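Hi L.,

You mentioned the student needs an example of a multi-chain input paired with its predicted structure. This one should do, with 219 residues in total across all chains.
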Amino acid sequence: DTGVSQNPRHKITKRGQNVTFRCDPISEHNRLYWYRQTLGQGPEFLTYFQNEAQLEKSRLLSDRFSAERPKGSFSTLEIQRTEQGDSAMYLCASSSITTEAFFGQGTRLTVV
Amino acid sequence: GIQVEQSPPDLILQEGANSTLRCNFSDSVNNLQWFHQNPWGQLINLFYIPSGTKQNGRLSATTVATERYSLLYISSSQTTDSGVYFCAVFRDDKIIFGKGTRLHILP
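Structure written out for the whole complex:
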């Protein structure tokens, strides 16, 4: 296992389009997190899964955002009707109950 | 919610200098990590340190959980140490980040 993998690495989309990002966690990790990071800021928590259950969602996650982890393995984050304010780096992390969290390389979204 | 404050926000040093980065948190935490974010945006794990002291080469970290702070020490800085250093605390199944310290090491 080579770590947390995110795809795509970069995405440019027109305002109003839908986008979907994928995260493949470290295989033995049951916890998966999504974060958003804008320029000059620290990563902000979006949502968290334990196995396939989505246990918490930030109020930053508007109804245009949805995340799934269908079989407790990979996860997807979808943004509908993208807005320019959605431009950011989207980061995924995984961990187990007793281990540190590892982050993927991120997906950089640009909405034009 | 819990607040995580990092200081200083920016630090400029000559190569070879030592530095200390601080992380204060407002409530008890389950755990704490230090990360280095590289120029491409990836967060690199440095330390997973709920309490005590750990060392890895030129880097070491100390967390005093009872006093709600952690320190990251970088000795004999190199230009490759440049970047943003984040402290992140584990609380209620979330990982909460500070705003980071941006370190510039000049050759």
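You could point out the following to them. The mean pLDDT of chain A is 93. The CA atoms of residues 37 and 43 of chain A lie 4 Å apart.

Best wishes,
N.
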